[in-house]
Amino acid sequence: MNGLEFGETTVAVGDDTVGRALVERFDRVHRTNADEADVTIEFRPGFVRPPDGCVEIHGGLWVDGDELFVDASGGSAAFGPFGEVLERIGRAGHQARIRGNPLREPVEVTVFYDDRVVDSDHRMLRQLVRSYDKNYASRPEVVAVKLVDDIVEAVLHQRLLARGSGLLHASGVVRDGDAALFSGWSGVGKSDVSGELVREHGYDLLGDDLVLVSEDGTASPYRKRMRASPRSIADGEATYDEVMNGRGLLDRGQWRVRERIGGPTAVRRNVLPSVLDGHSADVGHLSESPVATVVNLVVEDRETIGVEWTTPDDIAERGASTVMSELEPFTGEMRAVHAAAPTRWPDPRTVAERSDQIYRRALADAETYVVSVPPEVSGSRLADELSNRVLSDAN
After folding, report:
1. pLDDT at residue 393 is higher than 60
2. Which domain holds residue 245?
3. In whole angstroms, what is the distance from residue 106 CA to residue 17 CA?
4. What angle do CA 388, 391, 395 make, to 5 degrees?
5. Which of 135-144, 148-157, 194-203, 238-247 shows the lowest mean pLDDT across its residues?
6. Domain count, the chain
7. Using CA atoms, how far apart are residues 3 and 7, in angstroms rounded to an integer?
């Protein structure tokens, strides 16, 4: 088993092809011993039927006491040429058997996947399918990404809540020992501003999409793979050579062709922050950085960037609402699970309330702001404005 450490919470991941792809989603700062894990994830090839005794309570969702079975295998094979392709290379979906209430106890997850996705046969066919994906991800990587997005982060967040921490949907940076967090809905510029502060203002990256915050008022790294695109490279986030390190001629050619035909958003690569320009590879020293500033970004139809002071409680309430949406579909499915077994499985309202409580304590001593951002504002302009009006740069 491989271990990923997030604060005081450890996720143990089985050492097979998909498991290694899952571990490689995160920067090496999180590697740790897998003994006495809070969340254990094991992998088994081949899809299975729901366990005996489980009752289907929702499409693809079964429950039996303390056991939850999720079927995200994608159903039966399609007819026609695409169905023939799937029959040869396998499906990128998954099934998961989950045991344990994450708010109360350690959780065991058994993941089932189509073993044809990692079969060594049909290499050329799998390569062509890989080229079709704008992320140019391997089939095991696709399974791992879905697991992280659909199950792992939702379970991890609840285990963290039980230990006085949680995942905040925000990007985050650190300088001179203090953390600045940028929360808000997806697409408001969180990644752009943190990337610009790292490259041009001397900050270190805590996280690009989620940051671990604790009720003692500190933040710690949560660094998983980031999306690097031609547009971000043009802004200086990475160089083409860094993103293409170790990639073959087909991958390099596919990048150039997609970029020329579809523009700067038509292709991207998921790369670790530690290989990108300006992002520190050794970030262990960033753990438990005091949260000094929190900015909630909001897009509005305006010409100038507006800055208003707000309360930590306001930011916490916004954050709790946002994280519940970000952790879909698992948190949404929990409504059906809680209705079927209310004494066993947590109510999503309870998760939201716990998140709000943790955020209020974590951000209590921070300077908190709501910043209104015009549509399509550049990351450099936003970073400069925040440096001058909000962050410690102004001092």
Report:
1. no
2. 230-271
3. 24
4. 70
5. 238-247
6. 3
7. 12
